[in-house]
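Report of the visiting student (M.T.), summer placement. My assignment was to run the structure pipeline on a short list of targets and document each run. The first record concerns Ribosome biogenesis regulatory protein.
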Amino acid sequence: MEDLVENVLQSAAEKESRYKTTEVHKDIDVDIDEGNLLVTDTNSLELNNLRTKRDVYLKDLTRDNTQLLINKLWELPVQRVQDVVTAQLPAGKTRLPREKPIPKPKEATKWQQYSRTKGIQKRKKGRMMWDDEVKEWRPRWGYKRGEDELRDWVLEVPQNADPYEDQFEKRQKQRKENVAKNELQRLRNLARNMKGKVPGIGLTPTEKPDKDHISRAVTLAKKSTASVGRFTEQLPKEKPAKNMGRKRKFESNIGDMTSEKTRALDILNRVHSNAPIVGASKPTKEMMQSELRSRDARRKAKQGQKKGGKEQNKGGKGGKKGFQGKQKGNNFGGKKGTKHGKK
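After the run finished, the structure tokens were exported:
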């Protein structure tokens, strides 16, 4: 009986020895950040164990610090959510470093600066608006929008305006100019935020033209006459306009003597050589091929005539003799054979 009790106690002790205790003692308390699940251990390392038993020592140290973190997590308040026990982590204490710097605020546009100084607040406009002429609610934009400028069939001509000027076309042109002006202002705001320059596109003026731009404009203005700038008046101390076009390049009068020598020798060799300038091999070959083709065609035609005569004279005896005589006459050219063939 005593042996049985000792065996049970020994097995229990062996099981307990496999698992380490949850209590961990440190000389200096570690800093635990539950929000980021971070443990900072400021205790000094044991150099002897680190040199002799490096892996075992690091595993034990990691296990102890992890045990301290888990013990701290078990102290947090828990709640049950759909048969699952959860714990709410607090806010993190450690400030984590950023990968990139904090983005700088964008520079305010001119309108934002003006509205800020004047105290203008942005109000969201509704989709529908009241139209006094029609006396009903109409959409602010889109189909059948209210206060549509293009639906007026008559316009008043101002007193200081030209009576023959088309006011409808003038208003349409003014609207397009306003749209283009707003687009240019938007591009300028983007360029100012990106610290770049807006390229001069279309009819938009160049704010700071460079020297090349001005010289090119002057040259084009002088050449845009009927005489292509030949009789254009110039200022007293004005420099002659630069030629903006491409210049023809000729070979120099005194060039490389070796290249000139080789060129002259090539010409002399062509003159003294017996080879014809025009190649005669190709046309001769074509002519011979055409003669062979025509000869083959004639031979095939004769063979066709012979086969046709044999089929026609197949029934009678005289036809057979006539065919033999014809054959003799054709082969040997004898008069006898020809007469026999005629008979």
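The chain has ten helices and six strands. Residues 314-343 have pLDDT under 50 and may be disordered. I thank the supervising group for their guidance throughout the placement.
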